[in-house]
Design goal:
The protein is α/β, with parallel strands linked by helices. It is built from 13 helices and 18 strands. The strands form five sheets. Strands 1-10-12-11-13-16-14-15 form an eight-stranded mixed sheet, with helices on both faces. The protein has a four-stranded antiparallel sheet with strand order 5-4-9-6. A two-stranded antiparallel sheet has the order 2-3. Helix 12 crosses helix 13. Bound molecules: zinc ion. The site of zinc ion (ZN) has 3 residues, from loops.
């Protein structure tokens, strides 16, 4: 994962750009991938695919030709989708178009103006403070032209058409944690799923430019939306912060219940948050009206209240390979695989018994004098095995980990007392009269 990141991070990967295509084509060498193309100007629901944007050069110099800021040194020195500009400007005029990072004096910020149509350069506060002359020369040579917005799609076909999505964006020029880490971790997860026994659910990984890429894909695959039963947006998985699992717009969905209850056990150091309380990304397009896929998100984000949230180097030139580690990427990959494993096993529990189980007769009695907690849990879980509760429902109701419900359900299953079913199968005799 680190090698791929080293190879691709510094490219100026803007929404529709040659460098975005270059990065996506490189990723497609890693795994079988379909690349969808949406031409500039095409309507995608209420959105329109933007032009391809190319920067050839962008710099600021003194009137006697001393170069002070140069895009050739870092892709963040020009705002993404900057208009071209060539002229001499007063310092005052320049400062209206010169962006600096609000917190880190030596970092260059990431600024994008996809739809505003403005020109601009970015630099550090330190460099800006040194700009004392009355006038400067600005050269920004950029072009806007018809192009193709690209979305990479990797599919692992399951037994069911019902689909669980993984989504990551690739459109952040010269940065690493946001957004390349989500892309490479997603790729590793799909690589692992490809060599495992065929899963129940179909898995789709989408690698796209933020927001417009999701809207373009969804608006061209409306037929697939009814089968999208859950998803996870991936980003910021390499920095040194705890995992944060953010719920979907539908916190009562099976995806939310299952992933939340499994997460607690898989990563006791992680924390959870409700929809839009941790990050704001492509998961919004999937959760939105007319789509309504319960899409959660996983990322490493400083805890609520931290002044540098989501992380110190966010959207700046300090977001480099130095702030991530292969260990943390692997740890995030394993966490996501653990969540998927729970999701695969989340079924309705259908009792093959009536009345309370004669536990001692089946050798599953837990003595309440020795283990009162275990005794209570066994009965609480047993009571809810009625063909109407999934494993995730029960763990949420009882506020215990998914894995502990799974252990007891599995034990009952092994004794022939329980069957797993993908659909509800109520065993309450009163329902038959309805
Ligand atoms: Zn971002």
């Amino acid at each position: 994962m680190i090698d791929l990141i080293q190879e691709l991070w510094f490219l100026p990967r803007d929404l529709v750009s040659d460098a975005f295509d270059q990065a996506l084509n490189r990723l497609a060498l890693e795994i079988p991938m379909t690349i969808h193309e949406y031409p500039t100007g095409e309507m995608c629901w209420t959105w329109r695919v933007p032009e391809k944007w190319t920067c050839y050069e962008a710099y600021l110099e003194t009137l006697d030709g001393k170069r002070l800021i140069d895009w050739a040194n870092h892709p963040l020195h020009v705002i993404s989708y900057s208009l071209p500009f060539d002229g001499i400007v007063s310092r005052e005029e320049l400062f209206r178009h010169l962006h600096v990072h609000p917190r880190i004096p030596d970092a260059t910020p990431y600024i994008f103006k996809y739809y505003e149509r403005d020109w601009g350069l970015c630099t550090s506060q330190t460099v800006k403070d040194g700009l004392t002359e009355d006038a400067y020369r600005v050269i920004i040579r950029t072009t806007f032209e018809p192009g193709m917005l690209k979305v990479g799609e990797v599919v692992v076909q399951g037994e069911s058409q019902e689909t669980f999505l993984l989504v990551a964006h690739l459109c952040h020029p010269g940065m690493v944690n946001d957004d390349l880490t989500g892309v490479v971790v997603g790729l590793e997860v799909l690589k692992t799923l490809l060599v495992m026994p065929k899963p129940h659910y179909t898995y789709r990984l989408l690698i796209l430019p933020e927001t417009i890429g999701s809207v373009a894909y969804l608006s061209h695959h409306e037929n697939l939306i009814p089968d999208m039963v859950g998803g996870l947006f991936l980003e910021m998985l390499g920095n040194d912060s705890p995992h944060a699992l953010q719920g979907s717009f539908q916190p009562q969905s099976q995806a939310d219940r299952c992933l939340f209850s499994a997460f607690r056990n898989l990563d006791p150091n992680g924390y959870t948050g409700s929809y839009r309380s941790v990050i704001n990304n492509d998961e919004r397009q999937f959760n939105a009206p007319g789509v309504r896929v319960p899409m959660l998100s996983i990322s490493r984000v400083e805890p609520p209240g931290s002044p540098t949230r989501p992380y110190r180097e966010y959207h700046s030139s300090f977001d480099t390979p130095a702030i991530i580690s292969q260990d943390r990427l692997e740890n995030s990959r394993d966490l996501i695989l653990g969540l998927i494993q729970a999701w695969e096993s989340n079924q309705f529990l259908v009792n093959q018994f009536k009345g309370e189980i004669f536990c001692s007769g089946y050798g599953i009695w837990i003595d309440y004098r020795q283990n009162p907690e275990g005794h209570r849990r066994l009965f609480e879980i047993m009571e809810r095995c009625d063909g109407e509760h999934t494993l995730a429902d029960i763990s949420n109701e009882l506020m215990i980990s998914y894995q502990s419900v799974w252990e007891i359900a599995n034990m009952l299953h092994n004794k022939g007392l329980l069957k797993f079913n993908r659909k509800p199968q109520p065993t309450d005799p009163h329902q038959r009269k309805l």
